[in-house]
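Hey, resending since the last one bounced:
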Amino acid sequence: MDLKVLTSTSRYLSRMGKIIEIRWHGRGGQGAVLASRILAKACFLEGKWTQAFPFFGAERRGAPVMAFSRISDEPIKLRSQIYSPDVLVFLDPMFLSMPSALEGFKEGGILVVNTERAPEEIKMEKASVIATVPATSIAVDLGLAVAGLPIPNTVMVGATIKATNLSSIDNVKQAIRELIKEPLRQLNEKAVELGFKRTKISYS
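The structure tokens again:
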């Protein structure tokens, strides 16, 4: 990782306290729940304490879905949903225009968005770090789709670790090997690599 990116991201995360709380917003079928588990497992392999769990509303394809990840250097006693996330990850750009998806976002937080737009084009006053990646396009190019719906989740995990430096790519790949079966395992490892490589980041 670029030294400027690493230093800047580490500075922002250091302001957030001992527990880093990540809220994932996706649509049913995009894999937000699995993404939260992959990141948590990767951070566990980094020697962290972690949690990952979902929240479902209307359980249908395309409906809004939330998932949560907590990462800490110490045991985590919290068991609630995440109401004030340090990191917001949007698997679909539609969440940028949904006030409910932005509720509780901490001042100085990190925003990671699946979009073709550059991070400088996204106006988010609370965010100190904005990262964007064309995750849907990458998923389509790799053939990661179910019933014609692209699955951008592992691309977004790659983008998230680039924006936060919470885990190495190697540990994310190991998490994928433990959580995803063949024949999709290698495609998802490639998705993480491309997500990391193609993520663009801006700092305020």
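The mean pLDDT is 91.

Sorry for the duplicate.
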